[in-house]
Design brief:
single chain, about 280 residues, alpha+beta, two-stranded antiparallel sheet
Length: about 280
């Protein structure tokens, strides 16, 4: 579980002994990590399957491990899973993540929750939920700036307004064809191909989404996808779609699992173990 939380997927989690506490949309979640199978509880009734315990993880790992590099990463990161996230929180998270560091992303998201989120939790833990779209859509520039969003502040407000008005139907995009989801998300200010893929993979049930950024360019190498290492951001949507097709051909219809193992292992190799929530 720790490797899942500390793999660049989520940022609003913290550890308290054997417990992990996190915020996922309207849920303040507590997870007991002392158990072999995590026990997930929410203050708001039935907890979401955030660790995708319903996935056939054995079959998935066998499938993606046909690739030697993925097999090596899986061997090192036993127990890591993709995490299923609230779609609006995921969208704002990855808009916020552009050109930013892990600690800064986490700090900005926590300040957004403190300023605009509802209070939740019990006696043991008081949390602030992730803000509803309407709260962020109506937020003033000064308030958003105080959260540390910088140039991303108008992107966050406009994205929230699109969700609040129904112009962007995140629920309706869940499970939609990859091309449809990519097209819809690229219409959101501040969203490029990589951010769109993160949203689809982590919150819209597109397990074939394969986020490509400068880290993946280094991990995969320039010959694999025709872009110099470190130039992933320069891929056109057409070339990005071609790279996505290559990923699915190579890793299968759950290529997103392969991407997450490669990404985490590559980051650990390059910088040592990195943790948002030590």
């Amino acid at each position: 579980m720790e490797s899942s939380i500390n793999s660049g997927q989520v940022f609003l989690w913290e550890r308290d002994g054997d417990l992990w506490r996190g915020v996922d949309g309207a849920h303040a979640i507590t997870v007991d990590a002392s158990r072999a199978a995590p026990r997930v509880r929410s203050h708001a009734g039935r907890a979401p399957d955030i660790f995708r315990q319903g996935d056939d993880i054995g079959a998935i790992l066998r499938d993606i491990s046909r690739d030697a590099a993925v097999a090596a990463a899986v061997g090192r990161l036993r127990g890591m899973r993709l995490m299923r996230q609230d779609a609006f929180q995921c969208l704002i998270t990855f808009i916020t993540s552009a050109n930013s560091s892990i600690p800064r992303i986490a700090g900005t998201l926590r300040r957004l929750c403190e300023r605009y989120g509802e209070r939740a939790g019990g006696a043991a833990w008081q949390a602030r939920l992730f803000p509803e779209p309407r709260r962020l859509a109506r937020a003033g520039p000064a308030g958003l700036a105080a959260c540390g969003l910088g140039y991303r502040a108008p992107y966050v407000r406009r994205a929230a307004a699109m969700v609040d008005s129904g112009r962007l139907d995140l629920r309706g995009l869940s499970g939609a064809p990859w091309e449809e989801g990519m097209g819809a998300l690229l219409g959101v200010p501040g969203v490029g191909c990589k951010v769109a893929d993160c949203v689809m993979l982590f919150s819209l049930e597109r397990l074939d989404a394969f986020p490509l950024d400068r880290w993946m360019a280094r991990i995969l190498g320039p010959s694999w996808w025709g872009a110099p290492a470190g130039r992933a951001a320069g891929l056109t949507p057409r070339r990005y779609a071609e790279a996505h097709g290559e990923a699915v051909r190579r890793y299968g219809r759950r290529a997103g699992y392969a991407q997450q193992f490669l990404f985490k292992a590559g980051r650990d190799d390059a910088r040592g173990a990195w943790a948002v929530n030590p």
